[in-house]
């Protein structure tokens, strides 16, 4: 049977199929073209960056940390380069076994293992962590020969911080330590978080902390071409790092060492200031600590020794230790009397050896001179009764309002962190300090002991030194400062830091002159005259002896029968030369007794050094450190001829400085301790029956 085909219909269906197929093909090509446009045009920059990232790696170049110098250019903090054995935990299959195997090649001590474990707890697993530092050339060669066995282990060249003089001035200089989690978060939220890429350490205390931005420098960048295995093959571009600036301090490190040696094993603090500029010439807190212990991460044993010591070596006593000022407060009380018009210099007060108020007897030491006292005699012989009665006449609010501008109980604004305020009491302070209503009331009897620097009074040596410098400078108050200049790492151009303008407290010159002459009398014929016998310059001063603990009613003080740490503190304030003061100071020797026997002899040697260029004889230095000297003994040495030896066991400071300047090795300190130095300031003694001894 013949089939009749509908050619026209078949042709139409064929054309339809061709059309559909064409549309599909065109659509597919359109999709490919669109994808190509999307990838080649729209995402060109993004994909190009990814491609570059696949073949390149960005390596941060950590800058050399800036140096720290004293006022004469002596290097106090510098850097040195050393090889470090580092492990990246995320790249190691069996970490403990790897460390055990490494110990067969390179000596790894239990201390190294403990420090590494602590670092692991603080860091991310993909970070490279130091297991051993300061490798010898032989150790580097031994590891290099067997490097293929240890995946995730490498040797790096790093810069380490070094403090050539060890514990000397450690509270001023501070130290560096590994960046902890809190600091890392703060840096990531800072204005320039990239500046700390590759940096493992940061300043933790003192100038190292307060001037961290200047000391750190600017991180550089290397763009490296890498192989498929991730190994660098060649450098593509490089932006070098900018080293941190050099910081120049106002302190004289040889004077600082002299004072620390004069303290010996005793505890205390001393602050010496140039009254005309506010520059701090010495800033001593004893005992000290070795900041080199923290650079690679302090071990548990040393940390416990420092943190749990009864002597509190981590406490910056000059900045954070607060003490009753004792009789050193009396010249300022006398100036308050003259300024407010409550008394004049010729007002006579009978001192029978005690002062009666409200049926309570406020006593004086039995050895004190008694009789009729004018203002000069009261300062000269440190009459308690004179200043007990003056405190009653002034009242607590007037005393507070006069003393606050001098800096008592105030933040001085010195250029390192951590300063405490202390206590300058008044009624508002007591209401805020105590919780129970009966404790918040101010009693008139509490005012009396404030007049001799006892009671609630509690100040730092920095505050007392600033007030003394202000008095020596005729009422012109300068903000104390430790850093006087910075030096650019590249140009070596030194830029002095501008000092804040002096504040005129408005004291009448004749009033200031009256107090200064009375303080000159203290050194010439008063309580410190034996110490300054034979001095070729005139000075003004005031001794003080302040209670460390309260005495009970009718209880008499006996140093022999009192536990050593409960004995009185020895204080002294002074300035010299008296007619044109170039140095003013305040110091305390804790639990050392009379101010004239323990504190004043240190002040005499400081003045001899600064004004005459004299360094005490070894015999004299030893006697003062034991509290057994008054005027200098033996033949003093020329300060310029007494060497200042490095104690770090590393190359001398000049060589280290030159090495650090020339080197651009990337690296950072591996300090592991990130805890803040927690140490409470010495509490102020609140004496129910205050007795201030000379």
UniProtKB/TrEMBL annotation:
One Pfam annotation, family name?
Transpeptidase
The main location is: membrane
Against SUPFAM superfamilies, the record matches this protein to: beta-lactamase/transpeptidase-like (SSF56601), Penicillin binding protein dimerisation domain (SSF56519)
Membrane-related topology note: Single-pass membrane protein
| Any one of the GO BP annotations | regulation of cell shape
Signal peptide (residue range): none
Disordered: annotated span: 220-243
| Membrane-traversing stretches | 18-38
- Per UniProt, the enzyme's principal EC class comes to hydrolase
Active-site residues (renumbered): 327
Instruction: Give the matching NCBIfam families.
Output: pbp2_mrdA
The name of this protein is: Peptidoglycan D,D-transpeptidase MrdA
- UniProt source species: Rhodoferax fermentans
